Amino acid sequence: MSGFNVMDKHAVHQRLLERLAIDLDVLQRAAQTAYEAATHEENVAENKYDTLGLEASYLATGQARRMEEIRQALKRCQELPLRPYDEHSGIQLGALLALEAENGSEQWLFLAPDAAGLKVEEAGQLITVISPRSPLGGALLGKQEGDEVAIKVGGVAQCYSIIQVT
C-alpha cells in the first residue's frame, strides 16, 4: 500500500474535523432555507390539500435533527485524544490503521467515536472513518498489528489482517 510511512493520524483527524465542520455549515444553510420556506407567507395552506408549508416544515425539522447529530459528532471527534499506538492496550479510539482483506485488497481506517462512513483523503490515500458501534470497529478494539479480525456481514464471514497501526 503506498504511503505507509507518511500517514499521519493527526492530519487525518484534522481532515475529519474539517469535513464535519463543512457538512455542518452546509446543513445549517439548508435548514435555514427550509425554515424560511416553511414560515413564508406564500406557503400558508389555502386548503387541506395545500401541503407545501407542511412539507417544508418536515424538511426543516429533519435537517435540524441531522444538524444536531453532526454537531454532536464534531464535538465528540474534537474531544478525541490522539495517543500513540500502544501494543499493551491495542487498537483504541483514535487509531489509524491499514487492513488487508483475504482477496488482497487493502484499506485505511480511522477509528472515531462518531462520523462513521465519512471518507477523508490524506497523503493521496482514502481513509474511511469507522466507529466501535460497527461490527468491524468493535472487533478491532484491543487488537494489535499483525492480528486477524473476522466478522460476519449478511451471514458471510470476512477476514482481515491488521497490517499497520498508528
Automatic annotation (TrEMBL):
<dbReference type="InterPro" id="IPR023459">
    <property type="entry name" value="Tscrpt_elong_fac_GreA/B_fam"/>
</dbReference>
<dbReference type="GO" id="GO:0032784">
    <property type="term" value="P:regulation of DNA-templated transcription elongation"/>
</dbReference>
<dbReference type="InterPro" id="IPR018151">
    <property type="entry name" value="TF_GreA/GreB_CS"/>
</dbReference>
<keyword id="KW-0648">Protein biosynthesis</keyword>
<dbReference type="Pfam" id="PF01272">
    <property type="entry name" value="GreA_GreB"/>
</dbReference>
<dbReference type="GO" id="GO:0003677">
    <property type="term" value="F:DNA binding"/>
</dbReference>
<protein>
    <submittedName>
        <fullName>Transcription elongation factor</fullName>
    </submittedName>
</protein>
<keyword id="KW-0251">Elongation factor</keyword>
<dbReference type="InterPro" id="IPR001437">
    <property type="entry name" value="Tscrpt_elong_fac_GreA/B_C"/>
</dbReference>
<dbReference type="GO" id="GO:0003746">
    <property type="term" value="F:translation elongation factor activity"/>
</dbReference>
<feature type="domain" description="Transcription elongation factor GreA/GreB C-terminal">
    <location>
        <begin position="128"/>
        <end position="165"/>
    </location>
</feature>
<dbReference type="GO" id="GO:0070063">
    <property type="term" value="F:RNA polymerase binding"/>
</dbReference>
<dbReference type="InterPro" id="IPR036953">
    <property type="entry name" value="GreA/GreB_C_sf"/>
</dbReference>
